[in-house]
Amino acid sequence: MIHRLFQLVMALVILPIAFAAGESRAQLHEDWEAYKGWEIKSFSIEGIPDELKGDVQSGLAQTGKWKLIGGMTRPDFSVKMLAEDLARIRLFLARNGYPAAVVEPIAVPKPEGRQLELTLRVVPGDPVRIGRVTLNGWPEAVAFPDTADADNLAVGEIIRDVRIEEAFGYLKNQLLDSGYATVSLTYTIEPMGLGLVGLAFDVEPGEFYKISQVEIRGCGDDLLAVARRVMNIEPGVDYSLRLISNASLDLRSTQLFSKVAIEVEPVGPGELKLTANLEDSRMRTLQAGVGTFSDNPWLVRAGWRHRNMFGHGVGFDVMGVVGTHRLGLGTGVSWLGILSPRARTRAGLGFLVEDEDAYRSNESRIDFVQSFRPRNRDIWNIGLTFSLTDVERKISDASDVPESQGRLMEIWTDVKWDLTDAPLFPKSGGFFKTSFTVAPPGFFSEIPYVSIQGDASVYRSPFDPVVFAGRVRVGWATPLGEAVEVLATRRFYAGGYNTHRGYGRRKLGPLDSGGNALGGEFVALAGLEMRFPLVWILDMALFADAGQVWAQPHEATLKGFPLAIGLDLDLRTPMGPVRAGYGWNIANRIEGQPRDIFHFGIGYPW
Questions:
Q1: Which of 125, 138, 381, 417 has a CA 20 to 30 Å removed from the CA of 199?
Q2: Which CATH class is domain 210-280?
Q3: Would you give the DSSP letter of residue 555?
Q4: Model confidence at 222, in pLDDT bands (50, 70, 90)?
Q5: 558: buried, middle or exposed (CB in 10 Å: 19+, 13-18, 0-12)?
Q6: What span, in angstroms and rounded, lies between the C-alpha atoms of 52 and 284?
Q7: Which pLDDT does position 513 carry in this prediction?
Q8: DSSP-derived secondary structure for 319-382
Q9: Whole-number Å distance between alpha carbons of 315 and 306
Q10: What superfamily would CATH give domain 129-204?
Q11: Average of pLDDT values for 87-94?
Q12: Where in the chain is the domain with CATH 2.40.160.50?
């Protein structure tokens, strides 16, 4: 298995390294004992190959931890600690293709303060590369692995244990997904001379299996058909580990079952029986949440849901929302797996009141929504909405066009690809969201328009525990047919915690004569944050926000782009960070708006 990785390297490289480490520790003890207890004033590593920079220091004792109060803190110097760090670096380099690496510690002592400037100088030597990859025993019925696939090994690349793990898993999963449930896979490494090694994978595929029987146990009788439809595995299909994993994930995502365990067992030559052991969930749930889910300073959501009120997976829900500028109530019926095993369909009624500084709107609506979950937390929604909207402007300017109100038929879709490592406190990955809406002229709509918006965020942690988070948003909308403007409730707004923290809520973009936001048809926003722990459950973030809203797309320009910098203090809670911060407008400040401003929010702004 993988834990036997580098059998040859272990014999020819790692053991000499361990022996050398023992010798170096003795030498260190003799030459470095005089510095015991000295403060490590600075610590650096030189000579690490470019592709490995940033990976080696995180596991070293002398690297220390950075804190806002007190700066970088490191343990006092000890011979044992240095020797252990030298051994760690040698082992790390050996496992990443540099078995002949030499690491030399260099000290610049400061006797007057009992301080030590410590540098570890690395001479990596020539890397060991893959000279040959062979695959023995691969079944003819399965397509030969694609050598261009990123998970496969390529001749000429540096041999690394993590890459062998990826290739091992890639090959084994290909067979497990092709009917071979009992596959065995091993590998050997052989020297080829001149810094090259050969890697041979030996495959024993075992018997080819089909799933001949499918049984579902433990769930209510009325949910049997739902479970079978969601699983989407019929007798006679080839065994596939991916198929079974997806079935388990899909059953869990229905929220109808508190327990999902899928097992397979042989029932004859080349035949397997699949058994899904299920347990029904509690069908009635209460939901509540508070946060800045929109650009409202605060928003409270609450609801009641019965997942199986009408049986056969047909549920009913009632939801309400109350915020500083919003009041809404909705109810709906939903059912599962009609168009796809990963689909949920919902038909709902809703009423929404928006009480803004510039306008007040009352909207009644009927929604039909089809949701798909392609994978994990990704989601794709397709909807049809019929609404009746009444918008009343609070201040009438001489330049105002007539108020737009009336019927709308909106065909819309939105997709979110979520690749973050954690939904509440992401450190890596990112997400991309896009939405498109059209209310076509000539049908039901009296105020037709089209709108599109894209959001992208990315998270990176170049050194633990600091996280960099960046985001971009671009949105465009325009009236269609004889309409002269986009409805006020469908325009773009910016300013405030979730968009631009240098300005108050909705204070960017066109304003009426009273200084109230009118919104616009084009928006562009960008932001960058550096997040790091402070003390206890307190974190801090330094940020830069930029963006603007324009009345019409042709007015958009990068000149005069408002830019703000600031800081946030975050309190970590089970529902996410609770944040308070301060922003300073440092470039292209809008006339009449404050130079600095406080803000508060629940959850990250992106």
A1: 125
A2: alpha beta
A3: G
A4: very high
A5: exposed
A6: 52
A7: 84
A8: EEEEESSEEEEEEEEEEESSS-TTEEEEEEEEEEEEE-SSEEEEEEEEEEEEEE-SSTT-EEEE
A9: 5
A10: membrane protein fhac (3.10.20.310)
A11: 92
A12: 329-602
